[in-house]
Amino acid sequence: MEFLDKISKKATQACKATADKTGKIAKETKLKLKMGDLKCQINELYEQIGKKVYEQHAREQEIDIKKELEEECTKIDVLSDEIEQLLKQCLELKNKKQCESCHYQIEKEDRFCPNCGAKQTKEQPKEVEILQDLREADVKEEKEEEKQFVEQKLEDKIEEKLEDEEQQDRKNQEDEEGEYEENLKKTVEIESNIEEYEEENDNSNEENKEDE
Ligand SMILES: [Zn+2]
After folding, report:
1. Taking the CB of residue 103, how many other CB atoms lie within 10 A of it?
2. Cα separation, 79 vs 18, whole angstroms
3. What is the pLDDT along the chain (212 residues), one digit of tens a residue?
4. What separation in Å is there between the alpha carbon of 143 and the centre of ligand 1?
5. Count of alpha carbons within 13 Å of 163, Cβ hemisphere only?
6. Which residues pair with 105 in a beta bridge?
7. Distance 98 CA to ligand 1 centre (A)
8. CB–CB of 122/97 below 8 Å?
9. CA of 95 to the centre of ligand 1 (A)
10. By C-alpha distance, which of 53, 52, 50, 30 is closest to 42?
11. Predicted pLDDT of residue 77
12. Among 25, 49, 29, 48, which Cα is nearest to 37's?
């Protein structure tokens, strides 16, 4: 019976994992379609800009970019921002993010970019944003107490999270230092082995000469 239980448990787990993965793929596909659509819209705007510029040129007129192309340019800016957001969501699904400096795809938990070495700033806990919204929100007098209570809870949670992160940082640093020491020890060991080997070789060479 226990055996059957184990099997069904495993099957459920496998099912869940597959569902999770399928969900992610579906989400990614949706995001990609949306990004493709936005890119098309941007291309159309490029075309409109090009047409305007050509027409002005054909009429031998100067084009005032600020005045005549502002609308298209603003639209492109907005669409680009939207694409950027979608891309972020896409990367998030794969537990990745972009380097803040060179925009290379890196792991979400990377503290330094493996491509350019730039240090990555930490994301603030999502509670920070919620707290800000809450503080700005107007509530009725009778709800004021409740609001303060929730604010306090959020503040505690943020503090807790930041402390956890600090601890993790310290631990990472210690690990890195430990690794450095370990490597140093190994290097010294290897070097002394080489020295020993060379000495022995020298000795045996001399012995060989004596034999001759
Ligand atoms: Zn980088």
Report:
1. 12
2. 34
3. 677 787 778 877 887 787 788 888 899 999 999 999 999 999 999 999 999 999 999 999 888 888 899 999 999 999 999 999 999 999 988 889 999 899 899 998 888 999 999 988 877 788 888 898 888 888 888 889 999 999 999 999 999 988 988 888 888 888 888 888 888 898 888 888 888 888 888 876 665 555 55
4. 47
5. 6
6. 98
7. 8
8. no
9. 17
10. 50
11. 96
12. 29
User: Could you tell me the end-to-end alpha-carbon distance of the chain, in angstroms, rounded to an integer?
Assistant: 80
Computed over its alpha carbons, how large is the radius of gyration of the chain?
31
Expressed in angstroms and rounded, the spacing between residue 32 Cα and the centre of ligand 1 is 23
Specify whether the CB–CB gap between 172 and 165 falls below 8 A.
Answer: no
Look up residue 164 and give its two tokens: 């956890």
102 Cα–ligand 1 center, Å: 4
Residues in Cβ contact with 208 at an 8 Å cutoff, skipping those fewer than 6 apart: none
Residue 182, C-beta contacts closer than 8 angstroms, at least 6 positions apart? none
Residue ranges of E strands in the chain = 96-98, 105-107
Measured in Å, residue 161 CA sits from the centre of ligand 1 at 26
Show the CA angle centred on residue 172, arms to residues 169 and 177, nearest 5°.
125
Q: Coil, strand or helix: which one is 119? A: strand
Amino acid at 30: K
* Angstrom distance (rounded) from CA 96 to CA 120: 13
